[in-house]
Structure formats: C-alpha cells, structure tokens
Specification:
The chain has about 260 residues and is of the alpha+beta class. It contains five helices and 16 strands.
C-alpha cells in the first residue's frame, strides 16, 4: 500500500480479508485466484499475509481484531480508497452523512488509515501511504487483480452522490434493469474506462456492502476450484455486457467475493 501514479486519490488501492482462519483462507484464495501468499510480520502488528500477482501486492489477510470481533464483525472483504489526507477526508465524509467507525491511526512504516461507512452502512477504508513507491501496476485485466468494484447500496442515486462528492467519481453509462432499478457505472479520476458499478441493493443482500471481483482466466474452471475447496456459489455464472462472465460466491468462512473472466 503506497502512493504512486498508479494509485491516485479516489482509487481503491488495497483490499483486505478478515476472518477466523487466515491459513485456510490463504490456501483457498491462492488456489481459486492464483495469488502468491507471503507472510508480512512487522513489529507491534498482528500477523499479516500479503497476496500478490508476481511482485505486485493486491490484498492482505488478517484475523478479525478483538475489538471488531466484540462488535460482531464477520469474515469479509474490505477495500481501501487512497486519499491525500485521511483526517481531512474523514471529517468531510462525516459531514456528508458517513460515519467513522475507527478513527484515523498510523500503521508504522506503511501509512495512515481510518475505518468508515457510507450513509447507509457500507464499510470501506480511507488510506494514505507513508511515502513509499509501488511497482508499476500490471494491466487492469491481469489475472489476480481486482477487475470490478460493485456497491450494493442502501440507495443507489444517493450513494453515487456521496461517493462522487468525496472521491471525484464520474457517472458513465446507467443500465436500466427494470424492477431492479438502475445499475450505475462509474469512473475514477484519470481513468478513461468503467471502474465499477453501483445499484440499490436487492432484498436478498442482507446489508449495504461493497463486493470485489477478482480477475481469473475462465469462469467454469474457477467455479470448480471454489467448490473443491469448500466455497459455495451464491449467484452465476452469468454473462454480463461486454462479453465477460461473472460469479459471486462465499468462501469457507462465509465471506462474499466475486470473480470475473473473459470467457466461460
């Protein structure tokens, strides 16, 4: 996690899994997505695993902290959004109706972060690095990267207004899905392509949340890897506009994640 031209303000820059059995989760996702897993223990911090594509770090894994567990936190994925000033953005977020769940704090030698929610309760992180340089990012479609970011919002239009005011996201195409409402594609600063989408959540989605789609080469083979390692398919496979295929699934601890591939 660090500042570079590949991670300007307003972009997701890191993803993190928290749960009960980190080793099991690392084995599951390395098999399903193809990540390389390395331990990254720093003095004074809990054990942490880094998931990488080659030398490029994509995500991390850690056990649910005691305070979060006491607040009934469940295994989940969370995304970090890079900002210029975590404290200033936390104040701006609060003024816009969001909430700070864990005040800004420093990770020695890594950066500063805060745990926050949007006005309807979807969790994410604010992050500012400590001044290091990330290696150049692989192409966006590279297997193992996050290829799509999707918000199942408490209220789709209000959520877009909230995030765009904070992070400079822009409206792109809106897809009318009838009774399901509008699926709003959005762009991020400096990116001339669709960066993610959001919509008002369906009743089967238990709460507003972000879902992250990891790139894989082919969806059917990935589904076999999911079920072989104890995961469960929640939705799909499904073809989406543009010819890609997606599936949403639960890992063995019940954390929701998704995969996207260029072919079935």
């Amino acid at each position: 996690m660090s500042e570079s031209k590949t991670n300007p303000a307003g972009h997701f820059c890191w993803y993190e899994w928290m749960g009960d059995n980190v080793k099991q989760a690392a084995d599951f996702y390395s098999h399903v997505v193809g990540w390389t897993v390395k331990d990254s223990q720093m003095p004074g911090t809990p054990p942490y695993k880094v998931l990488s594509v080659g030398d490029y770090g994509v995500a991390g894994m850690m056990a649910i902290p005691a305070d979060a567990r006491a607040a009934a936190a469940r295994p989940c994925w969370t995304g970090y959004i890079w900002v210029d000033d975590v404290d200033a953005m936390a104040a701006k977020l609060t003024a816009a109706g969001g909430a700070v769940k864990r005040p800004a704090a420093d990770i020695p030698g890594v950066g500063r972060f805060a745990v926050v929610t949007d006005p309807h309760g979807a969790f994410f992180m604010l992050f500012r690095d400590a001044g290091g340089n990330r290696p150049p990012a692989p192409a966006p479609e590279t297997a193992g990267l996050v290829g799509w970011r999707e918000l199942h919002a408490g209220d789709g239009p209000k959520a877009f207004a909230f995030y765009s005011s904070l992070f400079g996201w822009t409206k792109r195409q809106g897809m009318d899905m009838g009774a399901m409402g509008v699926y709003q594609l959005f762009g991020a600063p400096g990116v001339d392509r669709d960066y993610g989408g959001m919509m008002t959540r369906m009743p089967e989605m238990p709460a507003p949340m972000w879902v992250y789609y990891f790139n894989v080469p082919a969806i059917d083979a990935a589904i076999e890897r999911i079920t072989a390692r104890g995961g469960k398919i929640a939705n799909g496979p499904m073809e989406v506009p543009g010819g890609q295929w997606i599936v949403q699934a639960f890992d063995p601890e019940g954390a929701l994640f998704a995969l996207v591939a260029p072919r079935r």
